[in-house]
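Researcher: I'd like a candidate sequence for this fold, 195 residues long. If you have to choose between options at a position, lean toward the conservative one.
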């Protein structure tokens, strides 16, 4: 249960209810971060707009590279909700999620491509405190992907750092998005919000 309970649909204002309806339509359930963030309606709206815009703008990197780097951040920071949701997204993209169990061995595992190794190493360097990114690392990424894609990768890794740290601090835990062989989505409800 999150440290701050989510807002139930019956207690939500019109804007939040519309946001919940859209989330249920897309995902079958209201993600718990939405229901908790709904405690602050203006931030809820800002976050929703930002997530949609960032998703639409992020089209320069191969999906597997971006999603793997974002997953790595969630895994490194211990955000069970982000790991759960990220695994589901990768399943729906048709990516091999079994290899995620061995992501700590990405540098030597044949399950990861050169591009994926570069992106995961970058995610690691961006997620450490202090940030340990080197000029050489960025130059290798630029040679591999180009400037726009490196900016996209950097932005997405930074965004996941924010999500994972926020959700971890608020005590938001996995919701079962990735459970089951067929990646079934949970029943359409707000578990913690009592909707």
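Model: Candidate sequence:
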């Amino acid at each position: 249960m999150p440290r701050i309970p989510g807002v139930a649909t019956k207690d939500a204002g019109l804007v939040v209810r519309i946001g919940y309806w859209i989330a249920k339509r897309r995902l079958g359930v209201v993600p718990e971060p939405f229901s908790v963030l709904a405690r602050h309606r203006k931030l809820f709206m800002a976050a929703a707009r930002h997530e949609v815009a960032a998703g639409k703008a992020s089209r320069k990197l191969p999906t597997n590279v971006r999603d793997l780097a974002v997953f790595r951040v969630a895994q490194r920071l211990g955000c069970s909700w982000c790991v759960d949701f990220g695994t589901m997204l990768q399943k729906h993209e048709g990516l091999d999620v079994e290899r995620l169990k061995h992501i700590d061995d990405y540098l030597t595992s044949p399950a990861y491509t050169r591009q994926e190794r570069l992106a995961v190493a970058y995610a690691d360097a961006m997620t450490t405190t202090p940030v340990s990114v080197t000029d050489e690392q960025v130059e290798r990424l630029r040679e591999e992907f180009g400037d726009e894609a490196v900016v996209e990768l950097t932005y997405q890794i930074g965004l996941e750092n924010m999500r994972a740290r926020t959700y971890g601090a608020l005590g938001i835990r996995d919701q079962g998005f990735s459970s089951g062989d067929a990646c079934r989505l949970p029943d359409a409800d707000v578990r913690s919000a009592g909707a």
